[in-house]
Amino acid sequence: MNSMDWDGIRFFLAAAETGSLSAAAKKLATNQPTVGRHINSLEESLGVKLFQRSVKGLSLTEEGKRIHEESQQIQSSVVKIQRTVQAESETISGTVKLSLPEGICHEAIMPVLGVFYKQYPDIKLQLDLSSSSANLTRGDADIAIRLFRPKQADLVIKKLGDMQMGLFSSDEYSRNFGSPITLDELKNHRIISYGDLLHNLPENQWLLKHSDKTLNITTSDSTIARLKATLSGCGISIQPVFFKRANNPLVPVLVSEKIPSHEVWLVYHKDLRHLSRMRVALEFLSAHMIKILSP
To answer: Where is the HTH lysR-type domain (predicted)?
Structure first.
């Protein structure tokens, strides 16, 4: 075995996670030949073949699967070392990587971001609004707001409240198409539902159950796209109830109906709890979200 290409571990993990050299290159902000070169070097140093290559992309070999598991542990150790070093020389400055749902970011956090920056002008927030859950153990994010309770042992979690969901239309829709008075009448109205990724969420299944699929005129996994479509008068959609506060044209529909809600959790890695920039970001997010979610 030759000397280990430690940087190759990073490229290997990205390729294993994304399933292709091009996607790994995009994730690491580099180019495909560089990714391929590092993986080839790692395979040579280890003396094993890590991937099966095909037109469909990359798949791990049996040796690759074993090394992938060990590599993830190495990466977690490296992230922990970096966090320890940061904690020893920390001031209230630096970057906090925050992963959160798109709708909560746009409708709850962005309106008060200016207040946060007035208090902490030297902190930079890096926002990740992707629909997939960032891996906090791997360092993909420092803090996450999630709509489910995480189960990993190395995470600190705090329940912020319950996000109540409701049916909404707009003034324009009401003028053009009226508004359902009973749940059965919802089947006569145009609806805006979730896309393929979020299709199975309980509130979306509730909406599909009580509506006519031929009148399901718009689908999207983007909360903001569904909100804008509703505000423009396209149809009736399910939105978090607190959205109404910042969007007066939203018209509540069938308010007595009980629609499945979501628990909202604040999550961070235990190694970060002593960082001052983390502490102030956590306090700010916690206080504001608890206020937003309160009935």
So the answer is: 4-61
Cα-only R_g, the chain? 23
Which residues have C-beta within 8 Å of that of residue 251, sequence separation ≥ 6? 168, 169, 170, 171, 173, 174, 179
Helix (H, G, I), strand (E, B) or coil at 15: helix
Reference 280, options 124, 163, 155; nearest CA is: 124
Q: What's the first-to-final CA gap in the chain, in angstroms? A: 62
Q: In whole angstroms, what is the distance from residue 27 CA to residue 25 CA? A: 5
Q: What is the DSSP string of 267-284?
A: EEEGGGTT-HHHHHHHHH
Nearest-10 Cα torsion for 277, 283, 289, 293? 160
Q: Which residue has the tokens 């859950």?
A: 133
SS3 33: helix
Spatial distance between the Cα atoms of 158 and 9, rounded to a whole number of angstroms:
33
Instruction: Compute CA distances 151 → 133, 201, 258, whole Å.
Output: 13, 19, 28
Locate all alpha helices (DSSP H) within the chain, ordered by sequence: 6-18, 21-27, 32-46, 62-88, 102-104, 113-119, 171-177, 202-209, 223-231, 276-293
Q: Which domains does the chain have, with CATH numbers?
A: 6-86 (1.10.10.10), 90-162+262-293 (3.40.190.10), 165-253 (3.40.190.10)
Q: For the segment 35-50, what is each residue's pLDDT rounded down to a tens digit?
A: 888 888 888 888 888 8
pTM of the prediction?
Answer: 0.68
Chain segment 97-111, per-residue pLDDT in tens: 999 999 999 999 999
Q: Tokens 């006569």 correspond to what residue?
A: 188
